[in-house]
Amino acid sequence: MTAVDLVLRATRAVVDGAERACSIGVRDGRITGVEAYGVAWDAAREDVLGEDEVLLPGLVDVHAHVSGPGRSDLVAVTRSAAAGGTTTLLDTALGGPPPVLDPVALAVRRAAALDRVAVDVGAWGALAPGGDPLALHAAGVVGVELVPPAPAGPGGSARPEAAELARAAGELAGVDGLLLVHLPGAAGPDAVDGPDAEASLVRAVADAAARAGVRAHVAPLTTAAGVAEVARARAAGVRLTAGTRPGDLLADAPHRRADRDALWAGLLAGTVDAVASGPAPAAPGAVRAADLRARLPLVWTPARRRGVPPAALAAWTATRPAALAGLDDRGLLAEGRLADAVVLAPEEEVELPATPGGPWAGAVRRTLLRGRVVAERPRGRLLRATARVTG
Predict the structure, then answer these.
(1) pTM strictly above 0.85
(2) Quick count: other Cβ atoms within 10 Å of Cβ 83?
(3) 115 to each of 321, 377, 379, how far by Cα in Å?
(4) Rounded to 5 degrees, what are φ and ψ at 130?
């Protein structure tokens, strides 16, 4: 057998969408093969997981908020991500400074992150009036976010109009671009529209994407009606994906339970593709649903209570997010993919201070980026997206 740098041996690993015992060879940061557990490798070193551990692909946060004032929190945020099992962050276009309105702004972002990130970081671009999506795509953004208008006074809506959606989708048609549209959080505390706002906007996005023949992603889904609209659009052949947040999956207020249950059903049915971190991570010393370090236990604990296996968790947090973003070199433990992985102890309790809903389970024992345990030295790369999915 060809010599490798590392062999990972796990009695439980999520491979091909299911758990099985296996050994995984890694050379030059990529997986060279997946074999039976006891296969002998010509390996420089081995990492043998414990019986209480599960090997998952490294998490892909499809819409993170890495940016902060002066980007001073960049190192801390990416380290927090690594500590929580995340190996790839796709940074919002609208943070900063500066927001990614053009290739120059993207270059500024990349320069600020160079040699400072603990995990791989890519970026969304912002599709603002006068913007050039072709130039943004050529510069390597994963997709473009439609910049919402400012709310028209107290109680006003920040949702884009149909004409804006049509323009945005049309501008992306030539590059098979991915359009991200923020939903108004109709079920959340910051909701400014009525209960049908989310479903209405999902329908409008789907219609615009269908007419232009482009891909669209809506997030965060918070309502049962929104999930139903995504399902309707996909059944009609619209290239629409959707994401939600840990906080929406944990909602326990009586008026939110039906929405919460619909989100879980949507994840299990494949209607909802990804669980992303949502708003910016909490300040040091605080933990909330958006904290990157806490994302796995915040999703795994309620999943475990519902009888959901780790393989489904990997699909929502790694495989499907990577696929919808066109990152075909990660998201799976498979030959040819990057050796990005997380070692999870699914039964171990973890402390999440000031976070109701516990006890929490799912301790991240270690995170591997290209086959190496993430440590103090920043080894993350700045992604230049080139892959474009077509279906």
Answers:
(1) yes
(2) 16
(3) 25, 9, 7
(4) 85, -5
CA distance 122 to 106: 10
- Residue 346, phi then psi, degrees to nearest 5: -65, -25
H runs (alpha helix) in the chain: 74-83, 103-113, 133-139, 162-172, 197-212, 224-235, 246-250, 257-269, 295-305, 310-314, 320-324
Dist. CA 310–CA 341, nearest whole Å: 13
C-alpha torsion sign, points 216, 222, 223, 224: positive
The SS3 of residue 338 is strand
Query: What mean pLDDT is reported for the chain?
Result: 88
Whole-angstrom Cα distance, residue 383 to residue 389? Answer: 16
**pLDDT of 125 higher than 90:** yes
Q: Work out the percent of the chain whose per-residue pLDDT is above 70.
A: 87
Q: Which amino acid is at 256?
A: R
Average pLDDT for residues 85-102, to the nearest whole number?
87
CA 217 to CA 205: how far, in whole Å? 9
**Residue 175 to residue 65: CA distance in whole angstroms:** 25
Tokens of 271: 């209607």
